[in-house]
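Hi, here's the filled form for the chain we discussed.

Project: internal
Contact: R.S.
Residues: 330
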Amino acid sequence: MSHSASDPVPPSPPAIELVGLTKRYGDTVAVDGLDLTVHPGETLALLGPNGAGKTTTVECCEGYRIPDAGQVRVLGLDPRRDGRRLRPRLGLMLQEGGVYPLARPREVLHLFARFHAEPADPDDLLERVGLAEADRTRFRDLSGGQKQRLSLALALVGRPEIVFLDEPTAGLDPAARRMTWEHVRELQADGVTVVLTTHLLDEAEELADRVAIIDRGRLIALGTPDELTHADREELTFSARPGLDTESLSAALEVPAVELRPGRYVVHGENAPRLISRLAGWLEEHDVRLGELQAAKRSLEQVYLGLTEDASAPSGGDPSVEAARREVEA
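And the returned structure, exactly as it came back:
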């Protein structure tokens, strides 16, 4: 059957689709019925405390773990059954390992380039990640940051459609960290899907289109950084002379209390413009000079800690199960 130019184009499948993903290690449930969709060209930050199930989830997507239940589709393919078709389309950046200790960056990158049909230029990539001057240094003698840069280059040399970045800036100095962020932005501009696991919440807030927070194998929050940090209650921080009558001030602002922190006062309430107006009136009435004033929404770190604050609490279960959970992802 022929199709006219006006026929609708079928939608492309999700880059990653997880439905009821479950993975157990003995009695420990590492991933517990996880549903998650990653859109093509999206950067998703996967956050969670150690043992939350992040690494197991990613390894199921990469085909290195077999789910006990549920469905995993990556670029419309089953990572295990269709592994030979899928692997050339993926880029994996590991935290450590994967390179022969006596190998040198340039030869390793050229070797990996030969595994792909249309690789990126290895020498150009080596320059871009800042390893040109260390191209003859053996892998075992590279600094931790240099090893991270080489791992990033190895993940990108095959021009992947999806890149999995595991703690990509761990051990990097600020300049190298910023350079890595620029590489991620280049991938985003090229329409590459990026799955980022990190413990650096400012990194997730800076780079991610959406953030998924998982705890004990379950998805507990999903949304853009703005969606997750939006709150009806806002935080107003200001500096003024010490010893203000906080009871009088809280009454004027119509808030339960004014919090004291070193060198500043903090107010939590609704409608920041109204709070600022009432604060200005109270300060004028009491002849108090205002110092610095800042109105801020919740940070992603505050949201994350609020959602996962019970993650490290003992469950009261079998100690061997808790030990197994800790070993799932250290």
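Let me know if anything looks off before we file it.
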